[in-house]
Specification:
The complex is a heterodimer. By secondary structure, chain A is an alpha/beta fold. Helix content of chain A is about 40%, strand content about 15%. In chain A, strand 16, helix 14 and strand 17 form a beta-alpha-beta unit. In chain A, about 55% of the residues are buried. The chains are: A alpha/beta, B alpha/beta. The interface between A and B is medium-sized, with 24 and 27 residues.
């Protein structure tokens, strides 16, 4: 026992009232599925069953698309931007009012620490709706012509890592531009999307403007291949993204994809070491590394390697892993058994390929899905753990000697979503940023998000941008 | 870093080379880290321990022109037994006064275990000749102070005369005749966190036993980001030189909640080696009553009004 052991400080679950089962949100109402199939969603931290959720089949998806089409043609696309804005502002305010409930629900269903859902996810959700609400009546000033038209019905498929935030990234710009949506949340994290459906009701959003269909891959496939969809927006794995791109290639659908990443976090010898270490930790252990833009490859200048690694190891010793609802938890649970198996497998490969594996001493809970913060040193560009996206709390450390070598190594990946640069030298930041092929380049920070800033990838990290003025383009006929 | 630091004699140029070669501090990142640690939730048993620890780390301070021997005697009584209604409340670490009242404090505190700290060196501005400053220190120590809180010459530091600051600290250390030397950086006048890190190292290289944020006479006084940077400095200094230096956050810390945030900062930056009155202090006056109120609340489940806690 240390001198100053923090007593448990759990956030209360009482703010959340879970239903036993949830229907599909179609045409403004919760309705049962046509063929009555359902699946369970569990808490990854305890494996406790939280609720039963309807699995939408092709007939359900068709109903949802029809409802969205009707709302598009008769209500939403005809409504002046000032009116659409009112609904979006109202949604943003309700999200703020229900922030604590949404944060607890997100941590329960996803396994992420309450500190992150409370301080990052939910505030950003509200910020996103506020931001795009502001655009709804100003689209003629967005640089896409005098009266840009919406696309129609958007089919949107989102991942499990930031469930409600990814929903906001998808729904807010779509609605602001005058589209209606059918959104499928990930099968392991449907609950906040269903809570959002309630928020749409609370905000008196016209029926059919937002439709939520729950289910797994089959439901997603039915949605993106549905002929009544004008626009497909997907965030998830590169593998599924390629499949969607192929499926949509023969259609008139407009597609945006936000896929995987293997970001380089580049630390120069003149970096502010203590803050760089925080940035490394935040880059890869934030949200258990379930972040497409995670800084999963640490590139350290050889002359600073010992100092940075020693500081990093010391810092990792203070990370607090455990109950996601405890307000002092830094690292929560892995989202699913399948994801845990994948992280374990790739870590095993890392060892077999000869990299040195290290984790701080840390006790893992017995129930649930857990993986300790892990650092691999002695990693080379040829190793699979330096090339493949692990999507877990696993950091691969490589070294470089010159800025040119750092750029070369950072770009030597099929991905290109994000990168980080740590140096006190401003000119070096600009020189590097001009050469890194990544959609987002952070300087002396990492994993910072803002609704005003466009986000998206190069190469196999996808195409299209979300956020900012650029994010409007994906939902306008331009 | 360590090789250079071991060079026994310094010049302005070599001190500059060393201090400016320290890793920079990114202000945005340091503030974000401090803010994150400030969000820790300290409850029940952890709070119990932390409240008592904070009380035992207080340098109970009165540094006013209107101070009198009577006022200092009252403060000393409170330092020895902060809560007359509850003998389990720990004593504070020290009483901190001006040199002319050090003797009063020393008399009151004899044999109690509470230290006598005196500010010196023309506190708070430090604008006096070296002779005057050293005389101030000698006077305080002769009057019974076993801890001396000196101020650095911020003007010299800001104009790059590092050697002068360094030599002054060494001279004060000699003049203080074995008393524990706390070096006040007055970070509110140094402004940048890079300066805070450099001044911390300069003071430690010159032999400081403690580095202290502020006099309390300049705004801002102690802040969490400044204290974070100073804690990182003592951690790195011990790694390089094997000598542990203490940190004192002083000024502007008024509530138990503030105090707990500082303890979390210590705990997660330098670890429990520093969670001890010998290595971490809080310079404050009104803080003590809030800690006592929270302590009583935790023990009884009820808040008593401020009338139930003694004014100092």
């Amino acid at each position: 026992m240390g001198k100053f052991e923090y007593a448990p400080a759990p956030e209360s679950r009482a703010v959340v009232s879970l239903r036993e089962s949830y229907g599909l949100f179609i045409g403004g109402e919760f309705t049962p599925g046509v063929d009555g199939r359902a699946f369970k969603t569990i808490s990854p931290a305890t494996e406790e069953v939280l609720a039963e959720v309807t699995e939408a089949g092709p007939a359900d998806v068709d109903r949802a698309v029809t409802a969205a089409r009707k709302a598009y043609e008769h209500t939403w696309a005809l409504m002046p931007g000032t009116e659409r804005a009112k609904y979006l502002f109202r949604i943003a305010r309700i999200v703020q009012e229900r922030a604590r409930e949404l944060a607890v629900l997100e941590s329960l269903d996803n396994g992420k620490p309450i500190r992150e859902s409370r301080d990052v996810d939910i505030p950003l959700v509200a910020a996103h709706f506020f931001y795009y609400a502001g655009w709804a009546d100003k689209l003629e000033h967005a640089g896409f012509g005098p009266a840009p038209r919406p696309l129609g019905v958007a089919g949107q498929v989102i991942p499990w890592n930031f469930p409600l935030l990814m929903l906001a990234w998808k729904i807010a710009p779509a609605l602001a531009c005058g589209n209606t949506v059918v959104l499928k949340p990930a099968e392991t994290t449907p609950l906040t999307a269903l809570a959002f459906a309630e928020i749409c009701q609370q905000a008196d959003l016209p029926p059919g403007v937002v439709n939520i269909v729950t289910g797994a891959g089959e439901t997603g496939r039915a949605l993106v291949t549905h002929p009544g969809i004008d626009k497909v927006a997907f965030t998830g794995s590169t593998e599924v993204g390629k499949e969607i791109a192929r499926a949509c290639a023969t259609s008139r659908k407009k597609v945006t994809l936000e896929l995987g990443g293997k970001a380089a976090n580049i630390v120069f010898e003149d970096a502010p070491v203590d803050q760089a270490v925080e940035g490394i930790v935040n880059g890869i252990f934030f949200n258990q590394g379930h972040v497409c833009c995670a800084g999963s490859r640490l590139l350290v200048q050889e002359s600073a390697y010992d100092e940075v690694l020693a500081s990093l190891r010391r810092r990792l010793g203070t990370l607090r892993l455990g109950d996601p609802l405890d307000k002092n938890t830094d690292v929560g649970a892995i989202n699913s058994a399948a994801q845990l198996a994948k992280i374990r497998e790739l870590s095993q490969v890392g060892e077999e390929e000869g990299a040195q594996r290290w984790s701080p001493p840390c006790e893992l809970p017995v129930k649930g899905f857990w993986f300790p913060p892990t650092v691999f040193t002695g990693v080379s560009q040829a190793h699979r753990i330096a090339r493949e996206e692990i999507f877990g709390p696993v950091l691969s450390v490589l070294t470089f000697r010159t800025p040119a070598e750092a750029v070369e190594k950072a770009n030597n990946t099929p991905y290109g979503l994000s990168a980080g640069i740590w140096t006190e030298k401003g000119s070096l930041i600009l020189w590097m940023a001009a050469r890194l092929r990544a959609g987002v380049v952070w300087a002396n920070t990492f994993n910072k998000f803002d609704p005003t800033s466009p986000f998206g990838g190069y190469k196999e990290s996808g195409y299209g941008r979300e956020g900012g003025r650029h994010g409007l383009e994906a939902y306008l006929d331009v | 870093m360590s090789a250079l630091a071991d060079v026994p004699t310094w010049s302005d140029a070599s001190l500059r080379g060393f201090l400016h070669g320290l890793p920079g501090v990114d202000r945005v990142g340091a503030e974000a880290r401090a803010a994150m640690l400030a969000s820790r939730s300290i409850k029940t048993t952890a709070k119990q321990w932390a409240l008592d620890a904070a009380i035992s780390m207080i340098d109970l301070t009165t540094l006013e022109g209107q101070d009198t021997p009577g006022k200092v005697r009252a403060l000393c009584a409170k330092a020895k037994r902060p809560d007359p209604a509850d003998p389990t409340a720990p004593m504070v670490a020290a009483v901190c006064v001006y040199p002319d009242l050090a003797q009063v404090a020393a008399t009151e505190l004899t044999g109690s275990g509470v230290h006598v700290a005196s500010v010196a060196t023309a506190f708070p501005s430090g604008r006096a000749s070296l002779d005057v400053k050293l005389a101030d220190v000698k006077y305080a120590v002769a009057a019974g102070a076993d801890e001396v809180d000196m101020v650095i010459d911020r003007g010299a530091f800001l104009s790059g005369r590092y050697q002068q600051v360094f030599d002054e600290i060494i001279a004060v250390k000699q003049a203080s005749d074995g008393a524990h030397l706390k070096v006040i950086l007055e970070t509110g006048e140094l402004v940048t966190l890079d300066n805070v890190r450099r001044a911390s190292w300069l003071a430690m290289l010159a032999g400081a036993d403690f580095i202290k944020t502020s006099t309390g006479k300049v705004t801002p006084a102690a802040t969490l980001p400044v204290t974070l940077v100073m804690l990182e400095a003592v951690r790195d200094f011990r790694e390089a030189h094997g000598r542990q230096v203490g940190v004192k956050a002083a000024g502007g810390i008024r509530t138990a909640k503030d105090a707990l945030r500082y303890l979390v900062l210590v705990n997660e930056t330098v670890g429990e080696d520093w969670l001890d009155p010998r290595w971490f202090r809080l310079g404050a006056s009104s803080l003590l009553n809030d800690l006592l109120m929270q302590r009583t609340k935790l023990a009884t489940g009820r808040y008593s009004g401020p009338d139930y806690f003694t004014l100092d």
